[in-house]
Amino acid sequence: MNRLFVAYKKVEMSSNAFLSSLKKRYKVKKAGYSGTLDPFAQGVLIIAFGQFTKLFRFLKKSPKIYRATFWFGVHSLSFDNKNIQSVVKLPIFDLDKLEKIKEELLGEITFTPPQFSAKRIQGKRAYEFAKKGEIISLKKCKMQIFYCKILHYMHPFLSLELCVSEGAYIRSYCEIFAQKLGIDATLSALERVQEGNFSYEDEKDLNVLEYLDLKENFLKDVSKLENGDKIELEELEFQEEGSYYIQNKNFFCIIDIKDNKVKYILNKVKKC
Prior knowledge:
Elements: E1 3-9, H1 15-26, E2 31-34, E3 42-49, E4 64-72, E5 74-76, E6 84-87, H2 95-104, E7 107-111, E8 120-121, E9 124-125, H3 126-130, E10 141-154, E11 157-164, H4 170-181, E12 185-195, E13 215-216, H5 224-227, E14 242-247, E15 251-258, E16 261-270
Parallel strand pairs: 3-12, 13-14
Antiparallel strand pairs: 1-3, 2-3, 4-11, 4-12, 5-6, 7-10, 8-9, 10-11, 14-15, 15-16
Domain Pseudouridine synthase II N-terminal: 23-170
Pfam family, one: TruB_N
EC number: 5.4.99.25
């Protein structure tokens, strides 16, 4: 069964465990998801069944929208509501000061991923070292903050909505925000509400072709798609280099044009 849809993961459940529950409920063997959510976080996961599991890299999944609640005065090794080392009572901050910091952090930010993250180093996830108390060196990364809205401030909790680039770490954003205030802070809640145009709508089936980050190309003889026959450049309407999808009534394929040659990336993917 080929299928693409958006599911909603609850807190205190790993993304892998959530996927296993979906496979059991829908009685499918081949399934995958895009964009791991920590057990601490809740929100949207893009789910694919069957051949559609090969399409994640072609989906437009950015920008991403999160809703996060910062807990001021708390020092946590993992920048969430676990591994808390200390809690300090702080005076209430002026809302104008918080708005100013929010504006200062728009655009590109350079950050170091948290030790408790899924970044790979030496063949392992960073959090595997962090759980053992081992401090490792992580390379600096960049993220884009497209917009940020303050939703609510009830001291010591500040709730924000953030629109960010793929690869962004809201934990690191929280750390930078807190540094500008000269305090410790952690996340008390995190929800992903959207990835690109993907949002939760009761797990309804999605037309995968509408979500591909690819331009459609057109082949003179679409029957070639049925057998995966070789495609010549002159048979295509668009001949510029790049990746495209082509479809007929029952199937679609993804091709790449480079050096005046056409190559299948994915062939004969059955429409759902």
